[in-house]
Amino acid sequence: MIRKSDKPLQITEVSLRDGSHAVAHQFTESQIRSAVRALDEAGVHNIEVSHGDGLGGSTLQYGRSLIDEMKLIEAAVEESKQSRIAVLLLPGIGTVHELKQAHSLGASLVRVATHVTEADVSAQHLHMARELGMEAIGFLMMSHSAPVAKLVEQAKLMESYGAEAVYVTDSAGALLPHQVKERIEALRGSLSIEIGFHAHNNLSLAVANTLVAIEEGATRIDGSVRCLGAGAGNTQTEVLVAVLQKMGINTGIDLYRMMDLAEHIIGPMLHRPQEILTGSLVMGYAGVYSSFLLHAERAGKRFGIDSRDILVELGRRGIIGGQEDMILDVAAELAHKSKSEVL
Amino acid sequence: MIRKSDKPLQITEVSLRDGSHAVAHQFTESQIRSAVRALDEAGVHNIEVSHGDGLGGSTLQYGRSLIDEMKLIEAAVEESKQSRIAVLLLPGIGTVHELKQAHSLGASLVRVATHVTEADVSAQHLHMARELGMEAIGFLMMSHSAPVAKLVEQAKLMESYGAEAVYVTDSAGALLPHQVKERIEALRGSLSIEIGFHAHNNLSLAVANTLVAIEEGATRIDGSVRCLGAGAGNTQTEVLVAVLQKMGINTGIDLYRMMDLAEHIIGPMLHRPQEILTGSLVMGYAGVYSSFLLHAERAGKRFGIDSRDILVELGRRGIIGGQEDMILDVAAELAHKSKSEVL
């Protein structure tokens, strides 16, 4: 593979943050400590530790964490010798207050995440991160759902707020390889900062999409050991490291240590294996939020139609989080349409 | 995606054959019946039913089947209305005797499988298949381990024996996307018959490699629902169907039915989830047979070295099945080398 960037790759392990969803936010302090110690020894560059929905996510709405994330961040910083500890922040859920607290505990990197069309809400937090001396990174979620030009526009906004890298975040695992290529390519032509890629494995394409992103010049790559993450999970870090090594791309990460910690440290944390089941497959196929699944099932039952048709239609219309009231409307419309077709 | 062949895609479901390994050859007749019925209703073109190691594989050496495969083939033929029932035959394990028997029960398609360098042993069986009026297909296993020119030479041999299609079979899940591309491309330039691709998911690249193969002109594609297959399993059929549909490529297969049978029919058959664990990852990374894993572990213990180093060296040397006595030699050599390096 010929990479279109000569910067070294930086891998960010997200199992202790995105994986929080997969364990219903029940990480214990000792789990975080042993995972960080092992990841650090294996040479992983960055380790993200936060509630699954970012700083401040431990609420009734998003799911209460077993252990306060600040305690987990503190523990992670204590255990890490070389790896940097990262945090995630979704403006509106987390605030600059939590950001300052995480920074004071030793987190040195923050990813400020917004919906792909709403980069403007990240300004304050990216500025504050820079002010604090943290590395400030933009994270454009549901990147599949916006046209490429829109994605570029929003990434440039984040750059203007001080972001040192911007991520294409495939939250629904909905991107196809050629769509990753065109997105990273377009950003490389428009930004002067680094480009990142965060994949989900709903369509079993996370590793392959990540390779495409790396080839096109992405240098910040997210992975999760054993795919421990929301939905079908993320790019399986230890597999990615093996594939890159096989391709002659050195990440500086120790493959055998990664295999060992996948088996002995992260494996036992899994509540269930990260297979691709109907729910996550539909999510990737339709390109919708996982939170829509339950709503669509209810609406499907009510109107006597297949919930998957509702999800596909929601994806087609680009309905986003916060617009859940649209689900019933779409279901009613589809039901009406299918009735007309029968008549 | 622009496909380099205008022939329709033919999907062959291998969970009831390759998946036999994953369930220790314990398929029951009623499992086969319900799976075939559902796959047939979903519109899957071909369904392979045999012992994991092909016809005649039910032995002490390869593992005894719970139910005689001829009984399973007969049941599959009975349940299928449109799907063709395929069988696998490895010359040396299966013979023309079993082939005739499978044919008399209604199997209409045989894949004759040899190591990538040993196509010559398939002549008799491919000829016989044609004589019987079955569709005769060549299956070149461990295709990653031979140079492209060798693969082409061997595929041409199979074509000369009457094969109507030849498969690139990535038995160890060791191929990278660019290696799939160069292999399918080379075959397309040299054969006048159809080209097939059979992937394993050891490096989490099965679906992506399959897309590359289809783009380059492969028209015969193997998949297994829920990845039910040896090692990390195969290209997950229902995921592939979703991805192709998303790309605008119609397989004629009903996606929702595939999702439903994945959840309700095949899912309950799984003895364990098809995750990518150390064993299968090392296999894909090193490009070796799964049967080497245990041997390498024993040799590693005996010589005090990491079994993974042995496997990588075996892959580098292209050691194949039947050469297991080399494993101790390689281990001894590596141990000697590492001792010299310390001194």
UniProtKB/TrEMBL annotation, chains A, B:
<feature type="domain" description="Pyruvate carboxyltransferase">
    <location>
        <begin position="9"/>
        <end position="259"/>
    </location>
</feature>
<dbReference type="InterPro" id="IPR017629">
    <property type="entry name" value="4OH_2_O-val_aldolase"/>
</dbReference>
<feature type="binding site">
    <location>
        <begin position="17"/>
        <end position="18"/>
    </location>
    <ligand>
        <name>substrate</name>
    </ligand>
</feature>
<feature type="binding site">
    <location>
        <position position="18"/>
    </location>
    <ligand>
        <name>Mn(2+)</name>
    </ligand>
</feature>
<dbReference type="InterPro" id="IPR035685">
    <property type="entry name" value="DRE_TIM_HOA"/>
</dbReference>
<dbReference type="GO" id="GO:0008701">
    <property type="term" value="F:4-hydroxy-2-oxovalerate aldolase activity"/>
</dbReference>
<comment type="similarity">
    <text>Belongs to the 4-hydroxy-2-oxovalerate aldolase family.</text>
</comment>
<dbReference type="InterPro" id="IPR012425">
    <property type="entry name" value="DmpG_comm"/>
</dbReference>
<dbReference type="GO" id="GO:0030145">
    <property type="term" value="F:manganese ion binding"/>
</dbReference>
<dbReference type="InterPro" id="IPR050073">
    <property type="entry name" value="2-IPM_HCS-like"/>
</dbReference>
<feature type="binding site">
    <location>
        <position position="289"/>
    </location>
    <ligand>
        <name>substrate</name>
    </ligand>
</feature>
<keyword id="KW-0464">Manganese</keyword>
<dbReference type="Pfam" id="PF07836">
    <property type="entry name" value="DmpG_comm"/>
</dbReference>
<dbReference type="Pfam" id="PF00682">
    <property type="entry name" value="HMGL-like"/>
</dbReference>
<keyword id="KW-0479">Metal-binding</keyword>
<protein>
    <recommendedName>
        <fullName>4-hydroxy-2-oxovalerate aldolase</fullName>
        <ecNumber>4.1.3.39</ecNumber>
    </recommendedName>
</protein>
<feature type="binding site">
    <location>
        <position position="198"/>
    </location>
    <ligand>
        <name>substrate</name>
    </ligand>
</feature>
<feature type="binding site">
    <location>
        <position position="200"/>
    </location>
    <ligand>
        <name>Mn(2+)</name>
    </ligand>
</feature>
<dbReference type="InterPro" id="IPR013785">
    <property type="entry name" value="Aldolase_TIM"/>
</dbReference>
<feature type="binding site">
    <location>
        <position position="198"/>
    </location>
    <ligand>
        <name>Mn(2+)</name>
    </ligand>
</feature>
<dbReference type="GO" id="GO:0003852">
    <property type="term" value="F:2-isopropylmalate synthase activity"/>
</dbReference>
<dbReference type="InterPro" id="IPR000891">
    <property type="entry name" value="PYR_CT"/>
</dbReference>
<feature type="active site" description="Proton acceptor">
    <location>
        <position position="21"/>
    </location>
</feature>
<feature type="binding site">
    <location>
        <position position="171"/>
    </location>
    <ligand>
        <name>substrate</name>
    </ligand>
</feature>
<keyword id="KW-0456">Lyase</keyword>
<keyword id="KW-0058">Aromatic hydrocarbons catabolism</keyword>
<dbReference type="GO" id="GO:0009098">
    <property type="term" value="P:L-leucine biosynthetic process"/>
</dbReference>
<feature type="site" description="Transition state stabilizer">
    <location>
        <position position="17"/>
    </location>
</feature>
